[in-house]
Amino acid sequence: PVLLFYAFSNIDFTINDFNSLMKRFDSFFILFVVGICADILFPQFGDFLTNTLLPNYKHGEQRLGIRCIQGFFPRADSVNVFALVYYIYYKYYVSYSPNWKYYFMIVITFLTLKVKDVLGLILSISLPIFKSIKMWHFVFAGIVFYFLVLLYSILLPEHYNNYMNFDSDSNTARVCLNVTSIRIAHDYIPFGVGFGQFGSPTSRDLDSPIYYEYGINKVYGLNYDSDGGKYMVDTFWPMILGETGIAGTIMFIILLYIVFRPFVKDFLIDTTNIYSLFPSLLFIAMLIISIAKPSLLGPPNSLFLWGIAGIFHSIRNKVTYIN
Fold first, then answer.
1. Are 198 and 210 spatial neighbours (Cβ–Cβ below 8 Å)?
2. Which residue has the higher pLDDT, 161 or 295?
3. Pair 79, 112: CB distance under 8 Å
4. Full-prediction pTM beyond 0.70?
5. Neighbours of 292 (CB within 10 A)
6. Where is 144: in which H helix or E strand?
């Protein structure tokens, strides 16, 4: 996806070119709506897709006993990135767009029951409410977040302990991956265990020996033979830290800073700036989502993020040059 950013940033784009691209993307909206509505109205819709059009289609995921909506998409996560892109486009870049379109995107995101994706969307909705972002906004947001976590720990104590208990003897896959990545970064300083060895799809497909070396292969979801390694790719930053070490993690953070700092800086000064709003909201949302999945590097999230960032980098440079 970084190469996609490089390629697009070196193409001579204008804001009209971007609008033309998004109009083509908008042509898929009706298909998106049909798939979502069919999945809501017909619980057996997923079975139909599996048996006919999409044999690799995975469905039936539930959260708190409620079925996650995913339409034609193989995962509910993919629904959310399309919904987020549609929401930002309809809300801030199409003056004639009917309100129901972006409200529909909000409802769909909540129906997927993906907490991090919902938080990312909430930020995309709330940040542009302010004309500019001041320091007290961050302080206020931090206080609100603290009380939300406190409420979460009170109402769902078991779920909270599964995600927040970082004891070394934890048997929760995501916690084990986080803790083990720190151990790997220490043992394999400074470059980690190498690509395809920990927390990535390749490490799962190759049944990496690193899981056995650190004894976490016995944890449910982290063993390819017994459970298909269904949670081996359930995190992002542990993958970066484990596979590339402290040095690689620092370099990746520097890359994010170089690419997205100009957008976010301009956005915080003026949240109505159309040349920075789209990539900034996408980046902030993906940063939140990256707590649980590889939204910054894994498709389809990363393709939208880096592609749109590349387009707006080209547009921004042209506007700066003209001014």
1. yes
2. 295
3. yes
4. yes
5. 18
6. helix 135-155
